[in-house]
C-alpha cells in the first residue's frame, strides 16, 4: 500500500512540475517577436480612425479627485445637470476620460443626466503606475467607491453605468459582479465583449497585440493561486504616433487587462435585468457590429428592456463623438 501511495505522490509531483514548467515558460518567454510588436510597422495598422477625436477640448471640465479603498486617489471629470440621473462613462483601452467630452457635454446640457467620466486606475494624465493596477477586480472596487461618493452628494439619484469599447466590457463585468445591482441601467457603446466573442474582429482590427502565450501561462498560474507575475505586460496597443501626447496608455499588465473584460461574458450579460442599450456603428473597424444583436439576445433572453441599435456608417470612435449617436441616447435616457 505504501508503494502505491508513493507512486501516486510521485506522479502527482511530476505532473505539477510539468504544469509549472509549461506555465512559467509561457509566462516568461511568451512575448511577440520584435518584428511583430513594432507599433508603427507598415503591416500593422491600427484600423481605428483617431482623426475623429481631433476636436477642441479647451472647454472640457477640469479633473477632480475621489478617494478609494486602494492606494491614492483617482480622477474624474464631472458634467453637471439638474437631472436626478447619473451616467458614469468608462473609457476604452489606451486612452482616458477626455474621449467622452462631446457626448457628456450634450447629455448634461440637455438635462438628461449628470455625467461622471473617470480616468480608470492606471490611465490618465499622471497615474501612479501607468498600465497596471494592484489586483484583478480592482476596477470594480474603484467604481463602487465612486458610486458611494456620488450617492453622498445625490442620495436619490439613479445610476446608469456606461462604457465604450473595453469600457463597455468593464461595464458588463461590473454587471456580473458583486456590485451589479448598484446600477439602475446600462449603456454600452461598441462594447468589447470578449476576445473570442462573435462581435470581436481578430486583434480588434489591428488595434491590439495580445501576448497570447504569456496570457495562457499567467492564466495557468492564476488557476493554482500564483499571482506573483500578474504585473507582466500582456497586451500592447497600436496608436499612431501622430495621435499620441503622453497621456495614452499603450501596454497593460495581465491583471489590468483581465480586469477590463467580463469574466464570462454570457454569464455577466445574463445578469443584466436592468434596462440595457447597446449602440454600435456599421463602419466599426474593431467589431463585427452585426453580431451584437444575436449575442446580446442570446445572453439576455428574459430581459424585455434590451435595445440594440446599429448606426449606419458610424465608426468605432464615431459611436462616441458622432452627432448621430446623441438622439438615440437622449430618447433612451428620457424613457428610463
Beta strands, count = 11
Strand pairing plus helix content: what structural class? Answer: alpha/beta
N to C succession of SSEs = HEEEHEHEHEHEHEEHHEHEHH
Number of separate helices: 11
Shape: globular
Can you offer a commentary on this structure?
- With 336 residues, this protein is α/β, with parallel strands linked by helices.
- Helix content is 34%, strand content 17%.
- The protein has helices spanning 2-29, 101-109, 138-153, 166-176, 203-206, 212-223, 254-259, 265-270, 292-299, 318-321, 326-334, and strands at residues 63-67, 73-79, 85-90, 114-118, 158-164, 185-189, 208-210, 233-237, 251-253, 276-281, 306-311.
- The strands form two sheets. The chain has an eight-stranded mixed sheet with strand order 1-2-4-3-5-6-10-11, with helices on both faces.
- Helix 9 links the parallel strand 10 and strand 11 (306-311).
- Helix 1 packs antiparallel against helix 6.
- The longest helix is centred in the N-terminal third of the chain and has 28 residues, at 2-29.
- The chain starts with a helix and ends with a helix.
- Residues 35-45 have low confidence and may be disordered.
Amino acid at each position: 500500500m505504501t508503494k502505491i501511495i508513493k507512486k501516486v505522490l510521485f506522479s502527482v509531483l511530476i505532473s505539477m512540475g510539468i504544469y509549472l514548467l509549461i506555465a512559467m515558460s509561457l509566462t516568461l518567454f511568451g512575448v511577440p517577436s520584435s518584428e511583430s510588436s513594432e507599433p508603427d510597422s507598415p503591416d500593422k495598422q491600427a484600423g481605428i480612425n483617431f482623426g475623429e477625436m481631433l476636436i477642441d477640448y479647451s472647454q472640457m471640465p477640469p479633473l477632480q479627485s475621489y478617494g478609494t479603498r486602494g492606494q491614492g486617489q483617482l480622477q474624474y471629470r464631472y458634467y453637471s445637470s439638474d437631472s436626478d440621473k447619473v451616467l458614469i462613462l468608462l473609457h476604452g483601452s489606451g486612452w482616458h476620460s477626455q474621449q467622452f467630452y462631446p457626448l457628456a457635454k450634450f447629455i448634461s446640457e440637455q438635462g438628461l443626466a449628470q455625467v461622471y467620466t473617470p480616468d480608470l486606475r492606471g490611465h490618465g494624465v499622471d497615474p501612479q503606475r501607468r498600465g497596471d493596477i494592484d489586483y484583478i477586480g480592482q476596477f470594480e472596487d474603484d467604481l463602487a467607491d465612486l458610486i458611494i461618493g456620488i450617492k453622498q452628494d445625490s442620495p436619490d439619484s439613479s445610476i446608469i453605468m456606461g462604457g465604450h469599447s473595453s469600457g463597455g466590457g468593464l461595464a458588463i463585468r461590473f454587471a456580473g459582479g458583486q456590485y451589479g445591482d448598484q446600477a439602475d441601467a446600462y449603456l454600452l457603446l461598441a462594447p468589447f465583449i470578449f476576445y473570442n466573442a462573435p462581435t470581436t474582429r481578430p486583434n480588434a482590427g489591428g488595434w491590439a497585440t495580445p501576448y497570447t502565450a504569456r496570457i495562457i501561462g499567467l492564466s495557468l498560474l492564476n488557476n493554482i493561486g500564483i499571482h506573483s507575475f500578474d504585473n507582466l505586460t500582456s497586451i500592447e496597443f497600436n496608436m499612431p504616433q501622430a495621435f499620441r501626447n503622453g497621456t495614452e496608455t499603450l501596454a497593460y499588465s495581465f491583471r489590468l487587462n483581465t480586469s477590463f473584460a467580463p469574466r464570462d461574458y454570457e454569464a455577466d450579460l445574463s445578469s443584466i435585468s436592468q434596462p440595457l442599450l447597446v449602440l454600435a456603428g456599421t463602419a466599426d473597424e474593431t467589431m463585427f457590429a452585426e453580431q451584437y444583436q444575436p449575442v446580446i439576445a442570446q445572453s439576455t433572453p428574459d430581459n424585455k428592456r434590451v435595445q440594440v441599435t446599429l448606426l449606419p456608417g458610424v465608426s468605432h470612435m464615431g459611436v462616441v463623438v458622432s452627432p448621430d449617436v446623441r438622439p438615440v441616447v437622449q430618447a433612451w435616457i428620457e424613457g428610463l
